[in-house]
Every structure is written in C-alpha cells, then in structure tokens.
Amino acid sequence: MRTVFLAIISLISIQSNAQFSGIFGKDPIIHLENFDEQRVHWGYFLGFNSYDFKIDQNRVTEEILSESTTGFNVGLVGDLRLHKNINLRFEPGLYYTQRNLTFPNFENQFDAMREVKSTYIHFPLLLKFSSQRVGNVRPYLLGGVSTALNLSSNAKAQDDNSNNRFRMTQWSNFYEVGFGIDIYLEYFKFSPSIRGVFGLNDELIRDNDPNSPWTSSVGSMSTRGFFVNFTFH
Predict the structure, then answer these.
(1) In its keyword annotation, does this UniProt entry include Signal (predicted)?
(2) β-bridge mates for residue 191, sequence order
(3) What single-letter DSSP state applies at residue 36?
(4) Domain annotation for the chain: domains and CATH numbers
(5) Contacts of 49 (CB under 8 A, 6+ apart)
(6) DSSP of 86-116
(7) pLDDT single digits (tens) 43-82
(8) Quick one: pLDDT at residue 15?
(9) Residue 154, by phi and psi: left (phi above 0), alpha (psi -120 to 50) or beta?
(10) Among 160, 223, 204, which Cα is nearest to 58's?
(11) Helical H segments across the chain, by residue range
C-alpha cells in the first residue's frame, strides 16, 4: 500500500513538478481552460480505504471490538455536467478491505477472533458541488448514496461461527459525503479526495444457534469507513 501510494506521488511529481509553480504561483499559466465545459467526461481512480463496523448491542455486555486495516481501491469515473458548478458522478470500483473482530467471553483466542475479509464491488451515485475555479485549482464537496456487492459475504454458507465462518449480507447500502480538489495540470486533471461512507442497513447474518456467543448480543452491525482516492481525468 505504501509502495503504491509513493509510486503515485512520484509519478505526479516527475511529470508535473515544473507545472506546480505555475499552478500556485501569482500569475499561473491556465491549463485545460475548457475542460469543465464538456458535457460528459471519464476518468479512473486509485486509492486506499479504512473500513470499520458500527456495532449496536442489544443487551448490556462487554463490547465487541472492531479493528480496521488499510485496504486498496481501484475504479472508473463517469462525470455528467448538470450545471457549471454541479456534476453527477458514477464511480464503480473494486474495494478490498479487512476488519478484525474480537468477541468477549472467550478463553480461546482462536474462537474470540474473526478476520472479516471483504471484497466489494461498489456503485456510488454522487453529486459534486464545485466552487469557482481559481487559477488551476477548484475545491469541491460531494455526497450521495451507494450500494455494494460483497463478494466475500459467505451469505449462502450453511456453516456459521461455530465452524469459523463469519457471514454478512451480500448487498449493503450507504450514504457518502466528502471533499476534494481539482488540480489542472498541462495534460490531465488530478483530483485527490477524502470521503466518508456510512452503512444504512444491518449487515450481520446471525448464527444458526439463537444463543450464539458471537451474534446473539448484536442488535445491528453496519459498515462505516473512509476512502482516500486519487482520480485522473
């Protein structure tokens, strides 16, 4: 992950080091002056994520601990201009992540720990609200809704946690909010952004035993997390 991140930064630095003084200088050379006049344009993104679980328990007991790790994102961007400051964006992507859950009241560490690996095909539909362009930079806010297919959900498995099988729903729904900045370089537009994602539905499939020590105390379990994406148009 660090290698990919450093490679992206190095690539931008090598190709556009000479341009940044023009972008942020007093009298910048305007790049891609008519880029945002396009009705439709396309791009792609690379980035990383940190997913977590929001867990609500249905009785007073020790908390289930959720530990997030850093995952990887890659996907495409389709952008439709609705207004000079408003765009509709569709950003389908592949998101790989892992969350580690620690359940209380187990003496055996193997029983207490569950590694929840998830591979999401993510389908967000977002509205982008851009400020006026100043030189070669343009900040923006975005927000919208999304749905995701979890390819690692184990939703159809008959085994449960008693057989070390953690199960989640295949489909999940979210709302998303974030911000970023468009940087206009000589040959392309580079857009780093940060976005929060918040689950709208309970994603946990309960164990077959209603008194399961893993799932019986869980009222709801939904995803939350954030993305850092580097988009190239």
Answers:
(1) yes
(2) 231
(3) G
(4) 2-232 (2.40.160.20)
(5) 70, 71, 72, 73, 95, 97, 225, 226, 227, 228
(6) EEEEE--EEEEEEEEEE-SS-SSHHHHEEEE
(7) 999 999 999 999 998 888 889 999 999 999 999 999 999 9
(8) 47
(9) left
(10) 204
(11) 2-24, 109-112
